[in-house]
């Protein structure tokens, strides 16, 4: 018995896979998947495509980044095979060179971000040590202020005691 070849639109295929339509379209675009289109330009997704998309979903769920997903292409491409002229091979070398340069740029960007993170971390550590130093200074000044204010209070009490004592003596001697 021959399997029936089912063709699904993007919405139905996305629902079957348990993903959004935009995710499905992004996978097709990012992974450069060879999907058939109908006369309106919409994707016409068949059984083999669904199987491949399920494998992609499984890889992503297992923690693989989208650009690192490996695709097993069982699908036979339709069309004639052409012998590549010399210009196409030079275009391929240019494209390969562009890919290498893009990787280098990405590595440089990663290095810059790493350096910035290290610099920010160092600045934060410096600020934390400065905060600790200032905190200790404030505590020291608060203690010093408390000591000096307690000395002033005791001096005021001693002085007021002396004044009160003099008044008492005077009032005893001279009754006003």
Automatic annotation (TrEMBL):
GO terms for cellular component: cytoplasm. Residues 10-30 bind DNA. Residues 91-151 form a coiled coil. Residues 11-64 form the HTH merR-type domain. It holds the Pfam family MerR_1. It comes from the Bacteria. Keywords: Cell cycle, Cell division, Chromosome partition, Coiled coil, Cytoplasm, DNA-binding, Sporulation. It is found in: Cytoplasm. This is Chromosome-anchoring protein RacA. It comes from Heyndrickxia camelliae. The lineage of its organism: Bacteria, Bacillati, Bacillota, Bacilli, Bacillales.
